[in-house]
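Friendly challenge for the regulars: who can give me the structure tokens for this chain first? No prize, just bragging rights.
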Amino acid sequence: MTDTIFVVVETAIADGKAEEMKKICDTAVEIAQSKEIGTLSFNQYFKSDNTASVSLELYENSDALMTHMDNAARDIHHVGEIATVTRIDIFGEVDDRVKAFFQPYKANFHTRYSGFTR
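First reply, four minutes later:
Bragging rights claimed.
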């Protein structure tokens, strides 16, 4: 499992837009589960006061992550109208396409040092 990529995305949700954000998250989960075989895990969390969300995502490899981003661009592109990405952390070895795509978001890239996955 050394090619897997773990992604954490934090967003700040605009006032009064939490329910709309939850609908977008539901759509994203449905798309990831039904259309993206390389998306291994995709979970959405909301802060108790609904002012922020966190997405925890696990991808098989860079191709799977980019497939998800292509789908997101088509199907949930309007998320930027109701939420602001405040942080993106990407863990694992990614290719240049991923680095280029996330560069405008000032993503933090982390390479694996040690450990194991069962």
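The chain has one domain: 5-84+92-110. The chain has three helices and five strands. Your move, everyone else.
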